């Protein structure tokens, strides 16, 4: 039976729960196909990202390939030439990408923030870490700085898109260098956990759970301040480019500016909810997370913008009705994404005894559930069964995926490449759900089965 309030009563992890947490904090088994699988991912993603960019930038978004056996070598030579000429890691790209990293680190260090207590960390003997959530002020400072740089011509925002290839290469190098650097740092300081003992696999999965420099939690910093900031400014860059060349901004580009701002703002205004997410309390800071934050998200989620930067608007113009539909779908999905994540995070905060919540803009209706129902597990934790979580075990994933689909659909059928994000993302989410549910089933045992009976749909009620 799902229980009723008081959810605000602080939970106590039982001895049996602690024993399970201890087991879950030890290395279990290879994921992602083990060392060979992760090596393939580490080499394959950069190649794929270069390929898709080349198709968009030089071949009107068509998926090019060698037409015959004899064409294989010339084709490879052409691809290589594109990378060497238009995506080499130029000094200018280092200054722009590196400048942003340093600026974001500086802001994270100095800006005032909301103090949020994270979840108890089993590997730290259930100590809670404090998070200085200053992403929102940092975002405002970044937007103001970008506007000044643009209008004073010190740095025109159009430069971001113009240097896409170069910036992407710099981002990849930073992603690789940071992943290996952090691995060696973790091992040298003895802060590694859940290690498999295989070097490349541990670099991929990460060694350290809570990397920090002074007051900055690097994992949460990298998740919010790098990818979504770049994604947003790439959209703004696209808008500026259209304004300069066409004299106006297309509704499609305006859609992407809105969509990327919503995501970035959600991460910043709800930063205090991020310590409650799987990436923060379970995933270590390895290549999988680092590369994706530094290079994958910023340079592969917004292919629609790259396409628009190179093509005439007549190729992706829709009817008014289609625009209304797309905007309405985006805003509805955003609402569910925002409120479902908020409902669960705030519920978890309540179970830690936190009773007052941060009030940032916009706080949407139904972000906090009064008197939520839940399942009290023998572990000690509680599983929410109210709000969106009464209908689906992953309402936040469904809504997030719909948004990712909209980011591609805004181009229609002109090119398949902008749909990469939603195809990749659904693969990630389905895989992650498998990993997550397996972990929850070990952690909560019979209580998890009970929860799955109460909330039957994995994603969408009646469908899956
Ligand atoms: P969830 O927010 O679903 O967190 C999963 C964990 O929450 C579980 O392991 C469990 O942990 C706990 N949990 C699950 N169900 C309940 C419940 N009913 N009540 C209480 N606790 C529960 O997933 P993520 O952290 O992966 O995702 C957070 C958001 O980030 C999502 O919206 C996702 O789409 C987004 N995301 C976006 C990415 C992108 O590239 N755009 C990439 C990854 C995520 P426990 O019980 O141990 O606390």
TrEMBL record:
Q: Where in the cell is it found?
A: Endoplasmic reticulum membrane
Tell me the domain of life: Eukaryota
Q: Which PROSITE patterns match?
A: STEROL_REDUCT_1 (PS01017), STEROL_REDUCT_2 (PS01018)
Q: Give the GO terms filed under biological process for this record.
A: ergosterol biosynthetic process
**Among its keywords, does the record have Protein transport?**
no
Q: Give the EC number.
A: 1.3.1.71
The UniProt catalytic activity note for this protein reads: ergosterol + NADP(+) = ergosta-5,7,22,24(28)-tetraen-3beta-ol + NADPH + H(+)
Keyword NADP set for record: yes
A GO molecular function term, named singly, is: Delta24(24-1) sterol reductase activity
Q: Which UniProt keywords apply?
A: Endoplasmic reticulum, Lipid biosynthesis, Lipid metabolism, Membrane, NADP, Oxidoreductase, Steroid biosynthesis, Steroid metabolism, Sterol biosynthesis, Sterol metabolism, Transmembrane, Transmembrane helix
**Predominant place of localization:** endoplasmic reticulum
Q: How does it sit in the membrane?
A: Multi-pass membrane protein
Which GO CC terms are listed, alphabetically?
endoplasmic reticulum membrane
The annotated pathway is: Steroid metabolism; ergosterol biosynthesis
List where the protein spans the membrane: 36-59, 96-115, 135-152, 164-186, 246-264, 284-306, 318-337, 401-430
Q: Which family would the database say this protein is a member of?
A: Belongs to the ERG4/ERG24 family.
**Protein name from the UniProt record:** Delta(24(24(1)))-sterol reductase
Query: Which source organism does the UniProt entry give?
Result: Mycena sanguinolenta
